[in-house]
Write a structure and sequence with these properties.
Strand content of chain A: under 5%
Number of helices of chain B: 21
Strand order of the largest sheet of chain B: 1-2
Helix content of chain B: over 70%
Oligomer: heterodimer
Largest sheet of chain B: 2 strands, antiparallel
Largest interface: A-B, 44 and 43 residues
Structural class of chain A: mainly alpha
CATH architecture of chain A: Orthogonal Bundle
CATH topology of chain A: Helix Hairpins
Radius of gyration of chain A: 17 Å
Shape of chain B: globular
Structural class of chain B: mainly alpha
Chain lengths: ~100, ~500
């Protein structure tokens, strides 16, 4: 398959993920959407790395995966903390601070 | 460049390394001893070690590797990096010192936990200024951000704090994803993640009219836009500044912003991305973002009743001025423009630490954080009020305060770019006038308005000491800039090193 095919799939995934973050109201689903965006990035990196025949892209993917895991650990812990204080986690209910 | 890791390379990483080790040491010490003073003293005195390493790198610049890079270009220790390392160590010292009393009173964490999180984030910030590679830019950005999410949610009994943390982690992770997508495109267009190589390859890619490169530029700028709270990516800032514990807010407003600009400038200048802006009018986007950011920040700040929200919008406005300097760099593609940005950042950091010290002092003593609670503070806590007033006036840019010189440097840089940015400079001056209203309002309340209670407020030693340091810092910067501008103190170039395109 040509490089463009991978990039188009990557761009689509990234757009779906971004739309998910903006549209969905549950922090867990928003997190999943962010993961989708990161995976779109990973796909693009791998496609580029394969076609450029360079290892930098592969290394980047490894590190993105690792760091994203750390980020999710902190994110989920914070969501658990907010669930304990409020008993619900819909972001529309998070309106004490008025934006 | 050597192919193996030798002592010199470890030495070049020593400032960051020692900050990380100090973070672990403080965390471990917290388990052994329950004496808060010992832990705090260890952290504060321990910061002298990375400071020593940074100074040794400044003095012995000739002994470094020839191109000032280490670990296969992952680390760049040039004047620009050392300037920021010094700035971040000052930030770390100020934040650790001022939060001592607050943590005990309002947070259900031990001082060691709080300090270690701040120190780890600080190491990330120092690395952000010294990276020469997209991979290390990303890793150090996350090393900075993840502890910041925790810092936002630390006051666990407060629902506002938890809410701030959720918003911060969601928007922060999303902005990282956007930044990463830009990096992926940049990697695809240039075939490398090394910024010096990218700079070399962008010229070639540009001559073939590469739209991917332009898209990468926009994504990267957007990703950093979140970190520096530029409009339209600023929505998170007021909520998170208000909800987070106040010392954490101080850390976000100075540390996170300075680190964001450090990495933004590094990627755009070192990576040669600014070079493609001239032909593509990318600078117009930056100029518009700068104009909207400073105007929205300063106008909305007028309407706030909570002092932390006001400072949030004020910091958005200040980011706008910094972006004016960035627009000048984009249009000229000359690193000389970052002199203004560095000068402005140094002043911004010191004055913001002072202003937040006043806010933390009031919160320590009374637990209040509305603007009207500052009524008569001049009589209730004269020294803190005087110091905070000085900082606010400097933020407003009243001559001859340091903030005025900082703004002057930035606006002059933009002015020198010719007619293209004249409107931006005029807008900057108008904004400066608007900002005087809300800064002076707080000062007026502190010194003229009648207080509800006339009791003297007891300020903790840590708050008083931080304020003293901030005031001395501002006065020193004011005098230094005064000398620089009148030409008595030598060229500005010696004081503020530039990140040069290789």
């Amino acid at each position: 398959m040509p490089l463009n095919a991978y990039l188009i799939v990557g761009a689509l995934l990234f757009t779906i993920g971004a739309a998910g973050v903006l549209v969905r109201r549950n922090p867990l689903v928003m997190f999943m959407s962010i993961e989708l965006m990161l995976n779109a990035v990973n796909l693009s990196f791998m496609a580029f790395a394969h076609f450029l025949d360079s290892v930098d892209g592969w290394m980047f993917v490894f590190l993105v995966l690792t760091v994203a895991a750390a980020e999710v650990v902190v994110g989920l812990a914070i969501i658990v903390a907010i669930f304990r204080t409020r008993r619900e986690i819909d972001v529309d209910e998070l309106n004490t601070l008025k934006g | 460049m050597t192919s193996h890791i030798d002592g010199i390379q470890i030495w070049m990483l020593a400032p960051e390394l020692s900050v990380v080790l100090l973070g672990f040491l403080v965390l471990g010490l917290d388990l052994i001893t329950h004496n808060r003073r010992v832990v705090a003293a260890t952290a504060l005195i321990g910061l002298l070690i990375p400071l020593g390493f940074t100074l040794s790198l400044v003095v012995k610049q000739d002994a470094l590797t020839p191109d000032h890079t280490a670990f296969f270009h992952m680390l760049v220790v040039d004047g620009y990096a050392l300037f920021f390392q010094f700035l971040f160590l000052v930030i770390g010292f100020g934040v650790l010192l001022v939060s001592y009393g607050y943590v005990e009173k309002f947070l259900r964490v031990t001082i060691g936990e709080y300090y270690s999180i701040i120190l780890l984030s600080l190491a990330g910030m120092m690395l952000m200024a010294s990276t020469g590679e997209l991979i290390s830019v990303y890793i150090s950005l996350e090393l900075t951000s993840i502890p910041l999410y925790i810092l936002a949610g630390l006051s666990r009994s407060d629902t506002r704090s938890a809410e701030a943390a959720v918003k911060y982690v969601l928007l922060g992770a999303m902005s990282s994803a956007i930044l990463l997508y830009g990096m992926a495109l940049l990697y695809g267009a240039t075939g490398t993640t090394d910024l010096t190589e990218i700079a070399r390859n962008t010229q070639a890619a540009l001559s073939s009219g590469n739209l991917v490169l332009l898209a990468a530029d926009v994504f990267i700028f957007t990703g950093f836009g979140f970190k520096i709270s530029a409009v339209p990516f600023h929505m998170w800032a007021p909520d998170i500044y208000e909800g987070a514990p106040t010392p954490s807010t101080l850390f976000f407003s100075v540390g996170s912003k300075a680190a964001g600009f450090a990495a933004l400038l590094r990627v755009f200048i070192f990576g040669g991305l600014a070079a493609i802006s001239g032909g593509t009018y990318l600078w117009v986007m930056v100029a518009i973002v700068a104009a909207v950011t400073m105007t929205l920040g300063n106008v909305v700040a007028l309407l706030q009743t909570n002092i932390k929200r006001m400072m949030a919008y004020s910091s958005i406005g200040q980011a706008g001025y910094l972006l004016v300097g960035f627009a000048a760099i984009m249009i000229s593609n000359s690193p000389a423009g970052n002199l203004g940005i560095l000068a402005f950042l140094a002043v911004y950091v010191v004055t913001n630490i002072g202003a937040f010290t006043g806010i933390i002092g009031l919160a320590d003593a009374t637990g209040k954080e509305n603007i009207r609670d500052f009524d008569g503070l001049g009589r209730r806590a004269p020294f803190i009020a005087a110091g905070m007033g000085l900082c606010l006036l400097s933020l407003a840019g009243i001559p001859p305060m340091a903030g005025f010189w900082g703004k002057l440097f930035i606006l002059l840089t933009a002015w020198n770019q010719g007619s293209a940015l004249t409107w931006l400079v005029v807008l900057g001056l108008i904004n400066s006038a608007i900002s005087i209203v809300y800064y002076a309002n707080v000062v007026w309340r502190m010194f003229v308005a009648e207080p509800e209670k006339r009791d003297r407020l007891a300020m903790s030693g840590s708050v008083t000491l931080t304020m003293a340091v901030a005031v001395v810092g501002i006065l020193a910067l004011t005098i230094a800039f005064g000398f620089l501008l009148t030409g008595l103190g030598g060229g500005a170039g010696g004081l503020f090193p530039t990140a040069t395109t290789p």
